[in-house]
Design a protein that fits this description.
- The chain is globular and about 50 Å long.
- The longest helix has 24 residues, at 71-94.
- The protein has helices at 2-8, 12-27, 30-40, 49-68, 71-94, 98-121, 124-144, 150-156, 164-184, 187-209, 216-227.
- Helices cover 82% and strands 0% of the residues.
- α9 (164-184) runs antiparallel to α10.
- By secondary structure, the protein is mainly α.
Length: 228
């Protein structure tokens, strides 16, 4: 990694700028899901989790950006926070399960507040590594969460319900931040994004294997099983 880092050093500003731009672009991918919600007039089959996860991740990365004194991370996550709050509000407006959304929002808020509080109280000499580890673990959970329904995807032979715009753009974004992490010689950014690229690639492969919409035959089979 040292050799690659040294080779990429002259391109630090360029890679950082590209990473920031594609990240902001990726944050707008949620608008495609919001458009689907608008078209169908409800949130049926669509989870609020990606949006709430986006709010939490933006806040945590914003704090981490301040710890690292990295202006690009700070700027990007300010934009991400604003966009994901808008997505949550859009979702809340169309959902018929407002109590559940409030409950999930409350849990996400409490979780975030606890971690931000921890970052404030931790020893400044240790907080970068420890808080980075926490963010890494949470990031893995968020990226891998669509795979929790893998059994259902295989059974239905369909990737319907998986957020393709977020997964596709996420693959590009994590690759760019992987390069930036290598340049910074920041092991947390590198570990985060190596695993993230792998997880996103696995999810993208599902779209190659299975269609994004179930066929009429598969839908009929699913209804028959539920009826049994």
């Amino acid at each position: 990694m040292e050799v690659i880092s040294d080779m990429l050093q002259p391109y630090k500003e360029l890679v950082g700028s590209v990473a920031a731009i594609v990240t902001i672009g990726q944050m707008f991918s949620g608008s495609f899901i919001c458009y689907d919600i608008y078209k169908q007039g409800n949130t049926r089959g669509i989870s609020v989790a990606p949006f709430l996860g986006g709010v939490v991740m933006s806040l945590l990365n914003l704090k981490y950006g301040y710890i690292l004194r990295d202006d690009k991370m700070i700027q990007v996550n300010f934009v991400g926070l604003a966009l994901n709050i808008l997505y949550v509000l859009m979702y809340f407006n169309y959902t018929s399960e407002k109590v559940k959304v409030w409950a999930k929002t409350g849990l996400a808020g409490a979780f975030t507040a606890a971690l931000l509080g921890y970052a404030e109280m931790e020893d400044p000499a240790l907080v970068e590594n420890r808080f980075g580890t926490i963010i890494t673990a949470f990031m893995f959970y968020l990226i891998a969460s669509p795979l929790f329904g893998l059994k259902e995807i295989i059974r239905n032979k369909s990737t319907e319900g998986l957020p393709f715009p977020i997964i596709f753009s996420g693959t590009i974004v994590t690759f760019m931040w992987l390069l930036y992490g290598i340049i910074l010689k920041n092991k947390f950014l590198v570990i985060q994004n190596v695993v993230a690229v792998v997880l996103c690639s696995i999810q993208l492969s599902l779209f190659v294997i299975y269609p994004s919409k179930r066929t009429a035959k598969e839908k009929a089979k699913s209804k028959a099983k539920k009826a049994d």
